[in-house]
Amino acid sequence: MKTLFSLLFLGISTLTTPPDFNTKRINQIQVIGSHNSYKQAIDPALFSMLSRTDSVRFKGIEYSHTSLSEQLDLGLRGLEIDVYADEKGGKYAQPLGMKLAKGQPPYDPGGEMNTPGFKVLHIQDIDFRSNCPTFAGCLAELKRWSDAHPDHYPVYVTMNAKDDTIKRPGFVIPESFTAAVLNRLDSAVVQGLGRNKLLTPDDVRGKSKTLEAAVLAGNWPMAKNARGKFLFVLDETGTKRAAYINGHPSLKGRTLFTNSEPGTPEAAFLIMNDPRKDEVRITELVKKGYLVRTRADADTREARQNDYRSFEAAQRSGAQIITTDYYRPSTHFKSDYIIHFSDKGYVRVDPVQQ
Question: How far apart are CA 276 and CA 129, in angstroms?
Answer without folding.
Answer: 32
